[in-house]
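In this supplementary section we document a worked example of the pipeline. Step one takes a protein sequence of length 189 as its only input; no multiple sequence alignment statistics are reported here. Step two produces a three-dimensional model, which step three serialises into structure tokens for compact storage. The input and output of this example are shown verbatim.
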Amino acid sequence: MNRREALKRVAFIMGGTVIGANLFLEGCTRPASKDVATLFEAETTDYLGELAEAILPKTSTPGAKEAGVGEFIPVMIRDCYDEKDQKSFLDGLNGVEARAKKDFKKGFLELTPEEKLQFVNTYDKEANEYQKNKKEEDANHFFTMLKQLTLTGFFTSEVGMKKALRYVKIPGKYDGNYPYKKGDKAWAI
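The serialised model returned by step three reads:
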């Protein structure tokens, strides 16, 4: 008996109390477009790491590259996004170099940290405007997906939880009236 069959039987015995067991068993998988395979090449994951680092750079806490966000993004794009969003992401990723050369007369990797910040801020404004005006059936903007995946990848990584957030391995009871001091880190849960 395999794990999937065992879990189905346990769910049946428990009277179906395992809500969402199918999602748990099947995971987050969708058919990936053929072009998504290029995201898993080492060169592309390194490039995605650099883009993510521009969004969430290293400061007193680690940056997105150190958290492995460049490797996280392709997995999520392949497994959890539909084809129109996959295509939008790939088209946007393929347009980054051309955009950097148009705006700064050099490739993205050659930009200074200040220019990278300006680059992502410009993209962020465009993405926000696009998202406000898009129709439900339209694909999401490339930069919106990149930014969301960067933040998700960072704050769900060990580095993000333990170094950027307050982390307690075995938390105690919930205290809804816990005193907050200005400047405290958020809790990792």
